[in-house]
Amino acid sequence: MRHVIALDVGGTGMKAALAGASGDLLHQARRPTGRERGPDAVVEGILDFAAELRAYGEQRFGEPAAAVGVAVPGIVDEARGIAAYAANLGWRDVPLRQLLAQRLGGAPVALGHDVRTGGLAEGRIGAGKGADRFLFVPLGTGIAGAIGIDGRVEAGAHGFAGEIGHIVVRPGGAPCPCGQRGCLERFASAAAVSEAWAAACGDPEADAADCAKAVASGDPNAVRVWQEAVDALADGLVTALTLLDPRILIIGGGLAEAGETLFTPLRDAVRRRVTFQRLPSIVPAALGDTAGCLGAGLLAWDLLDHTDRTEVTR
C-alpha cells in the first residue's frame, strides 16, 4: 500500500504516523524529543525515528514510504529544506531535508513550519475545510498563525508569515523575547493567562485551565483576568482580519479547550471591534494535537503530486 511518513517534532515530544493517500493515519507512534541531550542528539533522534517508521511500513505494507513530511518549530526555510532556528531545540541551520533523504535512501522529503503545517491540515480536512481563506491561530505557550489561501498556507517571502503573536496590542506593555513590548502573546497566550491567574489567586501552580474553571464558577478575579486576555486577543485578531479578510478564524491550542468560556466572549469582543470589515466565523480547531502530523502527511503527498505532475510534463 502506498503511504508516506509524517513527523511532527515538538519541543518535548515527537508525534509520527504512516499516512495513506486519503489522509488516514495507518500507524501512529510517539517518543520524547530529547532536547536535554542537545541539538545534535535531537536531529539524530529524528533520523532514527524516521528510519524505524520506514522499516515498519516496509514490513507491514510491502513497500517503503513514498515520501516524508516533517513539521518543526522555529524558523524554517521550507524552500531549501533547512530548519534555520529553534530556541527550544537549540539548533541552527540544520539541513534536515537532506539528512532525512540520505538516511531514508533518497526518499523525497518536505519540511514545514509546525503551525503552518497544522494550519494546512485544519484548512483542508479540519475546521476550515471548504473555505477559500482562513486564519488558524493556536493559543499555546505562545501564539502563532497560519494564513490559508485556496488549500495552501502562505509562508511569506522570508518564512515569517502569520506571526500574529508579535502584533503589538499594548504599546509599551510587557517586554517580549522578540525584542518588542506589548506583543499579543504576552497577554493572550495560555502561558500569559496562567501567569496572570497565578498572580491574581496567589497560587503559583495555578494555570490557564484553572482560570477558565474559575471563570465558569463566576469568580470575579478570574473573570477580570480572562476578559483582559480576550480583549487583547480580539485586538490582535481584528488587526489580522483587517489585513487578511479571512472567511473563517480557527482558534486552537490549549486555551481553546475552554470551549464557550473562551469563544462566547471572544466572538462578542471581535464583533464590537469590527466596523467596515466583514465578520468571519470564529470556530474551534477540529483536529487537536493530531493536526501537525496530519499536515505533515499532506506536505508529503503534495510533494508526490508535484513530482508526478513534473514527470508527466517532461
From TrEMBL:
InterPro entries in the cross-refs: ATPase_NBD, ROK
Top-level lineage group: Bacteria
Pfam families named in the record: ROK
Protein name as it appears in the record: ROK family transcriptional regulator
Similarity annotation: Belongs to the ROK (NagC/XylR) family.
SUPFAM superfamilies reported for this sequence: Actin-like ATPase domain
